[in-house]
Structures are given as structure tokens and as C-alpha cells.
Amino acid sequence: MLVFERNVMKRIYLVLLSVGFLTLTMGGCKNYLDEQLLGNYSDGTFYKTQAQAILAINAAYTPLTFSSDRNRLWVFGDVASDDAAKGGDPGDQADIGLIDDFQVYPSNGPVESQWGEMYEGIYRCNQILARVPAINMNATVQSRILGEARFLRALYYFYLVNIYGPIPLLLEPKNADQLQIPQSPVATIYEQAIEPDLQEAIKNLPAAYTGSDVGRATKGAATALLAKAYLYEKKWQLAATTAAQVQAIGNYSLLPVYAQNFDQAHKNNAESVFAVQHLTGQVPFTGNRLNQWFAPRANENGYFFNAPTAGFVNEFEKTSTGVVDPRLDYTVGRAGKNWVNGQPFDPAWSPTGYLTKKHEQPLSEIPSSTKGDGNLNYVAIRYADVLLWQAEALNELGRSAEALPLLNQVRKRARESYLNDPTLSAPGSGTTASTVPVGLLPDVTTTSQSSLRDAIYHERRVELGQEFHRFFDLMRWGKDYAQNALRDKTSFKYDTNRYFPIPQSERDTNKALKF
Hints:
With about 525 residues, this protein is mainly alpha-helical. The chain contains 21 helices and eight strands. It has a domain at about 290-375. It has helices spanning about 1-15, 15-20, 50-60, 75-80, 95-100, 110-130, 140-165, 185-205, 220-230, 235-250, 290-295, 310-315, 325-330, 385-395, 400-415, 415-420, 450-465, 470-475, 480-485, 495, 505-510; strands spanning about 85, 165-170, 185, 270-275, 305-310, 330-335, 355, 380. The strands form four sheets. It has a two-stranded antiparallel sheet. A two-stranded antiparallel ribbon has the order 2-3. It has a two-stranded antiparallel sheet with strand order 4-8. The protein is globular.
């Protein structure tokens, strides 16, 4: 397995050394829309062969990874929400704390770096889409590469538009003197970039890969992201239909044990619709730094950021006898339970009393000396998420009875971890897993649209917690819901904090922007 994964990762990431121009300089005051080719290849000598086209698309995935500290999706998705606090030492990473407190200025570090990473990805995709069609190469490989580039560009724009709102739209390479570009409305970004890119990607991408290509974007990934885009646009019928098309592909299913989604033994599994790949022990570095960012300091050399809140912990259901939804302890380290290394969790490891477990590996896999070189993928789209999107869309269409089985599939898998995980036991039972505790996560039966909406929102929070989706859910669910969920963040005002500010570096260089 390690040899197989190493081949995958080298195909996807090691190109950063051999293709020097793809490692782009990211200066603090740089206009991130103005990326120039640097290094060993010029415009006239690259994009000439199939091998070079593959190198280019491989490098287009890199801004999604957590192999550097520039991708701060977790800050926007979790820390800005009610699910997590900054964590860490009080003065460490102060700009993350300012986001946590909604004291956010255009010069904020994560605001700057996330913009830069996403537009770098768009630049790479634009180059591929402009140059690869002219290469004399295998037509099937060429079509696939163009489909991958469209999927990735759509994903980068999806993140940008949901973090920053109206943004500059750039769909082709431009010279520096053409880069004074005003913002386009959010609806325009969806309808002129995200939707058409994904519709085209679906036509060109395979349903699955084998060998060293496993980990690339698939037809299922593009279809799922399109369903998510429709959901965010409140195009309920299209969202429901497109999510159903993901199921119809037939490649996806829920794993028997929820926790298997977050361990290295089950990477790229049947529930993983699209995952950002990481691998430890490589040169250049391809590991997952979140393994260190979210770990405790004690014995692990961690930074203990992204600390779950008590409100998040309290969201998990319990039976009348106190048996908790097993997803809680698969997700969170807390008092009275063991940490990922088997030792009792100490609440003093975190300022909230909790740490997230989903991105953590035991020291037997990644020792403290190389803690920041984690091996876990980041699963950006899980099949459980697709089921919940479809349930939400159907409920909004007034088809609540059709939504129930989808929601209940997710709950069934969660409670039946007691049947499939031999390490689980009900409190006080003295036995290992063999039966589902009475009253644990019963099927939802209501067909009231408002009640079912609340149930779906709840299920998304506990099923997908600490996976960097929560803030974006809160924002798309509207002002009243978001304002109530973030009521403890006294500086949050939906009308002004719905989107984060465009970075100061872009304001300084792109004079066409309006604020």
C-alpha cells in the first residue's frame, strides 16, 4: 500500500521540483491575479508534450493541500463558526484569533493567504485550458486533463466566492496590463464559471481511476460539486437531481464505521468522493501539516489549534441512559475518553477542554519528531454529505417524505458503528459492541418541513463537524440562523461579516475593485 500511495503522490506532487515555473512566488503585496511563469520553462518551451501537460495538471492540485500553512480553509470553515475556537497559545497566530472574534481587516494573514492560494490554482487551470488543447497527444488523456482543470477551477472559485463574495472573474490567461478587473456578482461566478466548468468536466472525466491516477478528480466528484453549487444557489430541483446522479454512478457508499473515513488504512475509500491527497516522508514535502496544527503540545509537539467548542460537543444526541452518538468520540478528544494514542485525554491540553481528532494520527504512525508530516487525506466531499444535500433539497421542494430515507441512512450508519466497531461499548455494559444501544439515534419520522429542516441542519453539524463546512452552512442558511448560531461572537453582524474582505494586497494593485 505504501509503495502504491508513494507512486500516486509522486505523480501528483513531486513535479514541484522538476517543473520550477509552477512554484510561484507569493509576495506579501503581490497581485495574485498577476501570476507569471518562473523558472526553467518559458511560454515557448512548455506545453509542448503530453508529459508536460500531465505535469501541469498535477501541479494544479497543489493549492488544495495542507502541505503548507497557506491553505487556511479550516480557519474560515471551523474557527469562524460556532464549532471551534482558535485554540493554541493566547498570542500565537493572532490573525486567526481576529477571525474567531470577527475583528477582520483586509491585511489579515489568512485572508491574504487563502486568496493567494485559490487564485494561484485558478491561474494554473487557466494556463492548462488555454495551452493543452494545442498539444499533439493522446485524445483521451487530453480530454481528461481538461476535465480535471475545469473541476479544479470550479472548486477554487467555489471556495473564493463563499469566503469573499463578489470577486474578479478570470477565465483565461491575461497579461499584466489586463488585470485591472472589477468584482463580478456571486450569481455571475456560479453561472459563468462554476456551473459551466463542472458541466463540461462531467462529460470529460472518468467514473474511476486505477493505479497511479487514483486521487484525481472523477465524474462523481464533478457531479457532486455541481450538486453542492446548485444547493448553495438554492436551485433545489437541480440540486436534488444532480445529487441523485452521484448515487446513480454506483461507486459510492457509506463505510460501516464512521471513523474509517479518517484513518490512513481507509484512504480513498468508497465514501470518499473527492479527497486532497497527502503522503508522509517525501521530498519535496507532501505531508499534511494539520496533524501538528491540531495536536496537543504534551508529548506530541502540537499547536492545539481549531479547538472544538462546548456548544459543538453538546449538539450530539444521547439516549435516556447517557449513551452518546458515537460520532462525538470519533471526532473530539474529551475528558474521560482516550486520545488517539490510547492515553486518557487531558482537558488541560486545550483552552476549550477539547481537541479535534479527525485530522490526527497516532504517534505509532507519525512520531512527534515529524508531527507536521501527516499522512491523512483531506476529504473535501464525502458521500454522506451528498446524501444530506439531496435530503435538504428535497425538503425545500416540499418533498419531505422523500428526504427522510436519505437522512436516516446517515443516522443508521452512525448508530450501527456499535455493530461494526469492536472497540465500542455502551457505558456500564462491560461488553464490546454487538448491539445498538436502545434509543440511540432513532430514525427521524417527521414530515413537517420546518421540523425536518432543523433535523437536517443538526445532522450536518454532527456528521460533518470539524471538516471545515460549518461556517459556509451557517451563511447560506441565512441571517436569522447565522446570527443566532454565532450569538456568542458579539462582533459578528451578518450584514457586514457574511463575506470576508478582499485582501489589502489586491486592493493596492487592482484599482478596478469597488468596496
